Amino acid sequence: MTANAPDPFAVPGSVWSRVSPRLATLRRVEMLCAAMLLVVLLVVLAVMAPSTRPVVAVAVGALLVVSAYGWWLTGRQVAAWGWVERDSDLVVTRGRVWRRLDVVPYGRMQLVDVTAGPLQRAFGVTTVMLHTASPSTRARVPGLPPEDARRLRDRLAERGEAQAAGL
Amino acid sequence: MTADHPAPAAPPSGDTPMRRLHPLTPLLRGGIIAVAITVAAGRQLLEGGPVDWPLPIVVAVVAAAAAWAALTWWTTRYQVGSDTLRIESGIVVRRSRRIRLDRVQAVEVQQPLLARVFRMAELQIETAGDGTEATLAYVTLAQAQQLRVELLARAGQLSGRAGQGRAAPAREGTESQHQEAAEGVHEVLHRATPGLLLVSQLVRTGPLVALLGAVAAATISVVVGEPLGLALVLPAALAVGNAVWSGFVSHYGFTLTRTARGLAVRAGLLDVRTQSIPTDRVQGVVVVEPMVWRRLGWCEGLVTVAGVGSRSDDTGRLSATLLPVVERDRGARIAIDALAGDIASVPLTGIPHRAMVLAPLTRRVLALGMSAGAPGGPGVVVTRRGWLTRRTDVVPRHKVQSCAVRQGPLQRRLGLATLRLHLPPGPVQAVGLHRDQSEAWRTALTVATTAGASVRV
Questions:
Q1: What residues form DSSP beta bridges with A84?
Q2: Rounded-to-integer distance, Cα A19 and Cα B237, Å
Q3: Which chain B residues are Cβ-neighbours of A89 within 8 angstroms?
Q4: What residues contact residue B404 under an 8 Å CB cut-off, 6+ apart?
């Protein structure tokens, strides 16, 4: 998608709020840690069994290429997340190649989850997730600064109560 | 624990005293063990040998089972309170369960074969959300029906729903009169005839394909002179027979009636099942037309009810059945009835011409339509899809939980997108495949706005 082409899924009268770029940093760190672990294992293997060295060299090279691709892809994926708070519903978009947009009316929300693991807390990113009576609803906003996440949750809960529709 | 002594003081207003299940319960439960022993013994006899179990062991097992069943019966008590149903049970580990009546979604009266002989029934209570279920087995049929009406009435009062079934259980009369009195029946909407039911189960796509496959295998093996293919025929025939038989038995005598609160279903040859479908809990209806049925003008109606039939197994499908087999036009009329919506007048539009690459087989089938909320009517979304088995999903706009639009790389090149409407778990899945992207997005935003704006109904 070129930058100039109009977004066919734009929300009239609103612009997408984007998630924090720190989410990309976090995901890249996670990815690199996994890659490093694999490299260490491969090096140990090469030292213990010299006959495997050519294979190990190819594998490490492939790992580097995959990591570089992953680095680039992560940036694009994180940049594709976005959300808009409309009058009566929350709109969440994600993905670039496989795009998905969810529209969840506030009145349908059963509960709002705010989660952050230890690593997420260290990077200051929090995930807000909405649940309705349907298990297919997948409205998740990752990578919010904790303060923003809390405010978003409170706003959602407030509007949900005001517009509660139940089943 | 006051399990052995009913509360001596006058119970609070609306509470009934603690009650036990029917004294025949241990016999009915133990009956299963007796049947198992008889079957095992019968098998030994059939296989030629005499039954060589030592008598003392058989006696001891039976006595222990009987004692256990009796103890279980003695320690199980229930009480219908003003806002909760309380069930105390357990011999070693005591369990006390309280079910909030305003959470009760549906109460089913089930009659397994043995219980039916003694005019007993079991009561299954389903609640919202986590789908917890409580069972009271066994009570007399009359008691079960009375309890059902009582529980539903109290549940209705608590959650402020209007239009309750009139609780006027008749003391005499046939089973169905009991039933109808309890339900406040207005009219019978549909009764499945056994012949049509049996034929329809046979020509469903699954059994039919299996049957044709078996015939083909048999023909080939006869022609080639290789007997291996014949070995496939028996298992295929058994599987088909089983599917047809279970469909026939569970839907036998299927009767759909309109009641004060909505619809009620009664069906089953061996195990009789009674279920109520309150109109205000219906989340959507799907009309299914398997390949051959379409030629014959038949269809099947399934319904998603909040808190009912969320299990994806046979039990779930069974309790979601609105009509096992019916002529298409009548089925549509009854489905409209269940939804209180207007389906016939919803204009369906097909997919754009450029989408035909992505759906070559279903290009004339795929369609979506939306009716604007007419005054008094909620407005519905209708989607149609499926090649061999065609399905038409109908969802009232004010019942939609959330909407999703998805676009894959090929769809992006063609400017298409797929629209999904999310409902509570059940058979209804409204999916508008390969729509024009801006139309799909507009529809998603519009439907979500209606769903969000609707007041609790």
A1: A91
A2: 58
A3: 448-449, 452
A4: A100, A101, A102, A103, A136, A137, A138, B419, B420, B422, B444
CB B112: neighbour CB atoms within 10 A? 19
- The predicted-structure confidence for B431-447, as pLDDT tens digits, reads as follows 999 999 999 999 999 99
Asked if B426 and B303 touch (Cβ cutoff 8 Å), the reply is yes
d(CA A82, CA A140): 10
| pLDDT tens by residue, B132-183 | 578 888 899 888 888 888 888 787 776 554 333 333 333 333 344 444 444 4
* Interchain CB contact of A84 with B (< 8 Å): no
Spell out which residues of chain A touch residue B412, defining contact as CB-CB under 8 Å: 1, 99
The CA distance from A75 to B339, in Å, is: 47
Largest CA distance in chain B: 84
Identify from A103, A132, A163 which residue to disrupt to test chain B contact, counting B C-beta atoms within 10 A and taking the largest count.
A103
B185 residue type, one letter = V
Q: Are B422 and B402 in contact (CB under 8 A)?
A: yes
Q: What is the CA radius of gyration of chain A?
A: 21
pLDDT in tens, B44-70: 777 766 666 777 887 888 888 888 888
A132 touches chain B (CB under 8 A): yes
The pTM for the full model equals: 0.71
| Residue B9, pLDDT score | 40
- B409 burial (CB, 10 Å; 0-12 / 13-18 / 19+) is exposed
Confidence of residue B374 (pLDDT cuts 50, 70, 90): low
Which segment of A35-49, B117-131, B203-217 scores lowest on mean pLDDT? Answer: B117-131
Q: Which residues contact B47 (CB under 8 A, 6 or more apart)?
A: none
Contact criterion met (CB below 8 Å) for B110 and B136: no
d(CA B229, CA B94): 57
CB-nearest partner of A133 from B424, B437, B454: B424
Number of Cβ within 10 Å of residue B48's Cβ equals 6
d(CA A86, CA A165): 17
Q: For residue B423, which residues of chain A lie inside 8 Å, CB to CB?
A: 134, 136
Length of chain B measured in residues: 457
Q: Which residues of B touch A88 (CB under 8 A)?
A: 448-449, 452-453
Across the beta sheet with B77-80, the strand order is B19-20, B77-80, B84-89, B95-100
pLDDT tens per residue, range B284-304: 999 999 988 999 999 999 988
Average pLDDT, chain B: 79
C-alpha to C-alpha distance for B448 and B404, rounded to whole angstroms: 10
Among B423, B441, B448, select the one facing A89 at the smallest CB separation.
B448
Of B406, B447, B454, the CB nearest to A165: B454
Contact: B422, A88; criterion CB under 8 Å: no
The ipTM estimated for the assembled molecules is 0.86
Computed over every residue of chain A, the mean pLDDT equals 89
A97 vs B contacts (CB less than 8 Å) = 408-409
**Per-residue pLDDT tens for B253-264?**
898 888 777 788
Pair B381, B283: CB distance under 8 Å:
no
